[in-house]
């Protein structure tokens, strides 16, 4: 991970997006481009931003927290921004038709949707999840429901497995809440079938970080799941610890230390995808999709924290 490049690109992104844009959004956009081995295309990004602002109503989530995240996605799409935006809105409408209320999270899910039928699959899994955790399951779970629904397998079995993972981790000292639910969801990424080894890996990874004095807060729970299902080895985990410490020393992460670990994990996953031999990752599915899931999680956490801050300001 090139920390100097991250800092340099962040400065370019922050300057382009403007002072009014939350720094966490600028960081998310920075990571989005760099993990795709792209330098920040300021002119193209600004042009896509203008297209969104012109086409979307004032009430659209794409005018607010999701604006620059969507702009980054659309900028790297092969289609012109206008066409890409129409496709994105059509996917979002499919999610609405499937029964999801329009929100920042349906747009986030739409960004990673590949086929229209995924909306129906997502709704089926969402309802199965909700039947077990009525008060925890909300719009924030839609991106996960879409990505995991795409994986196939019996919906009820996957939801039941999530619930089992949730209960087991509670017994091991994990705090109850949305973040633990997200972790239990990620743990089913490889298989809808319950696997006690996945629980063991999550606990071992958490213990490793704690032994290295890297704090694991609730918002970082899903990261443990990503690393567990990717079967990250000790070398990878040690590199993440070292990168996290280096990031925490920078001015950029001074006020957002929670995102240092998230960023270190993100780049570790990128490197795993780039490693054609996959020497240190035993993962039978698509690591590209796993990266999509992690970025969705990061963006969802940013969106949630910004929304809470905005609500508290009124």
From TrEMBL:
<dbReference type="InterPro" id="IPR025062">
    <property type="entry name" value="DUF4003"/>
</dbReference>
<dbReference type="Pfam" id="PF13170">
    <property type="entry name" value="DUF4003"/>
</dbReference>
<protein>
    <submittedName>
        <fullName>DUF4003 family protein</fullName>
    </submittedName>
</protein>
């Amino acid at each position: 991970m090139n920390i100097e490049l991250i800092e340099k690109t962040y400065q370019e992104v922050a300057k382009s997006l403007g002072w009014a844009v939350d720094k966490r959004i600028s960081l998310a956009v920075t990571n989005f481009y760099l993990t795709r081995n792209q330098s920040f295309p300021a002119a193209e990004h600004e042009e896509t931003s203008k297209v969104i602002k012109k086409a979307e109503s004032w009430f659209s989530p794409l005018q607010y927290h999701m604006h620059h995240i969507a702009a980054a996605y659309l900028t790297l799409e092969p289609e012109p921004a206008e066409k890409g935006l129409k496709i994105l809105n059509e996917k979002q409408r499919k999610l609405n038709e499937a029964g999801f209320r329009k929100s920042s999270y349906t747009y986030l899910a739409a960004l990673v949707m590949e086929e229209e039928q995924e909306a129906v699959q997502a709704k089926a899994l969402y309802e199965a999840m909700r039947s077990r955790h009525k008060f925890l399951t909300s719009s924030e779970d839609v991106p996960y429901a879409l990505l995991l629904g795409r994986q196939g397998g019996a919906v009820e079995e996957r939801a039941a497995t999530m619930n089992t993972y949730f209960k087991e981790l509670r017994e091991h000292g994990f705090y109850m809440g949305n973040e633990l639910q997200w972790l239990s969801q990620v743990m089913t990424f490889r298989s809808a079938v319950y696997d006690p080894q996945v629980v063991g890996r999550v606990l071992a990874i958490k213990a490793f970080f704690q032994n290295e004095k890297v704090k694991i807060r609730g918002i970082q729970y899903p990261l443990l799941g990503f690393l567990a299902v990717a079967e990250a080895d000790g070398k990878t985990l040690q590199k993440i610890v070292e990168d996290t410490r280096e990031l925490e020393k920078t001015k950029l992460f001074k006020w957002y230390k929670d995102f240092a670990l998230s960023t270190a994990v993100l780049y570790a996953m990128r490197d795993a995808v780039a490693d054609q031999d996959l020497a240190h990752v035993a993962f039978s599915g698509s690591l590209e999709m796993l990266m999509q899931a992690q970025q969705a999680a990061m963006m969802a956490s940013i969106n949630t924290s910004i929304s809470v801050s905005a609500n508290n300001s009124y």
